[in-house]
What we know:
Elements: E1 2-4, H1 7-19, E2 24-29, H2 35-47, E3 50-55, H3 75-84, E4 89-91, H4 95-98, H5 117-120, H6 124-139, E5 143-147, H7 151-163, E6 169-173, H8 193-198, H9 200-214, H10 220-232, E7 237-245, E8 260-268, E9 271-279
Parallel strand pairs: 1-4, 2-3, 2-5, 3-4, 5-6
Antiparallel strand pairs: 7-8, 8-9
Helix pairs in contact: 6-7, 9-10
Adenosine monophosphate binds next to helix 2 and strand 5.
Amino acid sequence: MKVIKTVEEMQNWSETVQLRGETVGLVPTMGYFHQGHLGLMETAKAMCDHLVVSLFVNPTQFGENEDLDAYPMDLDRDFKLAEEKGASVVFAPQREEIYPAGFQTSVALASLPLHLCGLNRPVHFGGVATVVTKLFNIVRPEVAVFGAKDFQQLQVIRQLVKDLNFNIRIVGNPIVREADGLAMSSRNVYLSPGERASGLSLSRSLELAEGLIKEGEKDAAILRAKVTDLILGFDHTAIDYVTLCDPETLADVDHVTGPVLVALAVKVGTTRLIDNRVIDPAQ
Ligand code: AMP
């Protein structure tokens, strides 16, 4: 497995393998791998001749007062895990390689970022869309794999690929969870033992919502109130949002009439956790 740090070397590597007729699958990450990341790697590897994992903590998707400088990192462990998953390359550039002096272009979506995480993280999806566009141009993959844990991000990427005519197949992988239901996240290491227990409020409340919707509850306000109560019944929790929305447009719904995305962002202590589930009342 090669560790590549420059844009030029990455582009040359991709061009060389593609001239040989070999396909490339990309898994973009910010590192500190867990089973969620490793699952994406397995999916990409199964679909392509080569797996390329990018590992870049992208500064432009962090707002002020977010955890950019504290973001957990263990490069040697990550390189080992990517190699075990059969990666051909880990692309791990420095910040200046991706954003050299004078950088001034950004990719912005008009409406998807106006929902869910975009409300309290106004710069986030512009940063994601810009860096992913750059990664697509640098790595030139046939396939790119993202996790449904970041549901809104997945929708943003699908939309930008469509809008900007990237010839890349976007694949979404299901959320990988700890045995007790907590969605895996690099940020879970920030949780104290008490906060870790309260992290379960997210998956528990999604189960509650699913049960209620399948029993016939359609009123989004009632569902939101019950989910909110369950979450606030745990210590250390503060709600950023509890939203029921259309899984495609992410626009809020008042009534559940078909598949609905229940999406949550909860601060547990100082750690912001997200989780979601698409619930189909007909199933
Ligand atoms: P990150 O390193 O947190 O930026 O995540 C990199 C990729 O891994 C994104 O596509 C995430 O959606 C995905 N991912 C993170 N956590 C999970 C999880 N628990 N299950 C599935 N995919 C995940």
